[in-house]
User: Fold these one by one.
Assistant:
Number 1:
Amino acid sequence: MGLEYWLKGDIPPGPIKATVITDISRVAEIIKKNIGQIAIFVGPAIKDVEDIIGDVVSHIAELSIAINAPIITSDSNIVKKLSDIGFKNYIILFPLEMVRKISREELKQYRLLIFIGHRYAYQWLLLNHIKHYRPDIQTLSLDPYSQPNATWTLPPLPLALWYKNFLQLIEMIKISIEKK
């Protein structure tokens, strides 16, 4: 009898690794396919990106409005920015608490979770937990670095190129939704 590792959620990425998507139109297709069943996790590390590039939270809010998805965050600065721009579709919930609720099937309405702005190691652990305890939920990392535990991830990119692609993604989704 072979040994079986009993800590199911405590293993490295293993055989199931993220698909790296280099074409931003493919990311738009994935998001459009799941409209109505999406939640966007925004972490406090988005502030580090904003220090270099500029306002990213308002663009995340644009994406959220376009796909009718709530923004889930626990960061008071993000909540303040969202309130300042008049955005109300947010939930204040710690990431670990949200992941636990998803793994316990307390939140069944989400089929795609979009992660952006979390520290790499913390996001790695959150995605690893979801991947092993709720394999039916798909995850998408929109950060400027690859995330091996997500279902889909963007390639590692310089911030300027990542930001350009992120804005292009929002425009592609808005245009495709307006056509309907």
Number 2:
Amino acid sequence: MIISVLKKMVGIGFLVAIIPISYAERGMIRTIHNYSTQPWTFQFFDIYPDSVVDFIGLNCHAGQPCTVPPNESVNIIYRWYCKGKIQITDVSGVSKFFNYKCGKRYAGIEQGELGELPRIIHQGNTGSVSMNERFAGDISVDAGNVW
């Protein structure tokens, strides 16, 4: 079983291969990168109580703010169906909120469909923070230290 799962993961990349299989079974793994010289804080507010977006690493936990230090990254896991808001706060305390969604939810049944990858919804320029770049659901703080 473990060998077959690892064979499927080979094309996904080394980072995913080192994350415990239990995480991969629970949803879609993405990353928050902080390339700035200041910490940034991220918090997900889920609409569905059983569709939590969780952090993997940095001693961060679902439903709580996660401060990502300068030049560090933290993995996040989106459940196959999810919907809510993410609050992103810079070092000066200025916050912006964005909606996110993934998968479809029908009568309490999970359906992870290929066309329904995690997506942070935004319009136009998002300043120092890039969304859905490299992969859908990724977040990257560029060189800017504030919004």
